[in-house]
Amino acid sequence: MIDPKVACHPTICYRPIRPSDLLILEQLHAELFPIRYESEFFQNVVNSRDIVSWGAVDCSRPDGQSDELIGFVTARIVMARESEVCPRSSWDAPNPKWIADLLSYDSSKSDQTLVYILTLGVLESYRNLGIASSLIHEVMKYSSSIPTCRAVYLHVISYNNPAIHLYKKMSFKCVRRLHGFYLISGQHYDSYLFVYYVNGGRSPCSPVELLTIVVSYMRRGLSSLAARLRKNEEKVPRWLKCKETRCLLTTQSRRNLKTERNGFECV
Ligand SMILES: CC(C)(COP(=O)(O)OP(=O)(O)OC[C@H]1O[C@@H](n2cnc3c(N)ncnc32)[C@H](O)[C@@H]1OP(=O)(O)O)[C@@H](O)C(=O)NCCC(=O)NCCS
Asked: What is the Å distance from ligand 1's center to 162 Cα?
């Protein structure tokens, strides 16, 4: 097979995944992931049932392959309020309760949604051409266009350095390490949870952030108190002067009273 990086620059086009992609989509998943996906998952992807997807094809490919998938991303919309939903199978979005914990989730806004990236992959010979970045970009754009959507999130196995590098580059925030999240061939592996906030979504404050806010609030409070005290200090001597003057006045002769009073009123 000709390496598209060595050959001329391939012309990559992006489009939704459709029923005719079923076979190649299954092959790519089997080739790229250590997890087996159920056929129901592929059916849902190609028929856009509860799943949104984008495929990448090399339009400059010869031999009728110009419409064959060389990359893909699949994602699902989840309701942030479905905090009791448990994963039914490997391709289900994990318990959104974790995610609600990671968002400043307002339960009164019960229509808040999240987009969970289920799978992302690029054929080996097409890697490092920015294809996965473009696919993620599509997901970000799509999520931002949903007014109720607050974040895009995903899991990545802890040893997948190319993917971790990619998500960091795309401004995803690594918010948690989940111990033993994946079970592959009887062995547990940790995963990282990455989140990209959209439409004003944000994470709740971490203890450190909370402490920073409290300290800066107290600092502001103290400096405004100090400013008020300073103001009062300026007034105090004048007030004291008045008092003193008043005291003095009582001891002063009637003759001086008028002049002292004038001075007193001016204070
Ligand atoms: C992860 C994957 C989708 C990236 O696809 P891609 O099209 O090559 O991604 P991009 O070209 O957009 O970006 C790749 C970035 O990773 C970097 N990268 C590649 N290999 C790397 C490695 N071993 N360690 C660190 N970074 C690496 C590239 O340099 C590039 O970053 P740069 O733009 O700063 O140079 C692809 O490697 C893949 O399909 N892997 C197998 C399936 C998989 O792991 N999917 C993700 C599951 S969470």
From this structure: 4
pLDDT over 80 at 61, yes or no: yes
Is residue 103 predicted with pLDDT exceeding 70? no
The reported pTM is 0.75
3-state SS, 13-69, equals: EEECCCHHHHHHHHHHHHHHCCCCCCHHHHHHHHCCCCEEEEEEEECCCCCCCCCCE
Contact 237, 267 (CB under 8 A): no
Domains in the chain: boundaries: 12-204, 210-266
108 CB within 6 A, ligand 1: no
Quickly count: other Cβ atoms within 10 Å of residue 225's Cβ: 10
What confidence tens digit (pLDDT) does each residue in 134-149 have? 999 999 999 999 999 9
Nearest CA to ligand 1 atom 25: 162
Q: Is 170 in the pocket of ligand 1 (CB under 6 A)?
A: no
Q: Please state which CATH class domain 12-204 belongs to.
A: alpha beta
166 ligand 1 Cβ < 6 A: yes
Whether the predicted pLDDT of 86 surpasses 50:
no
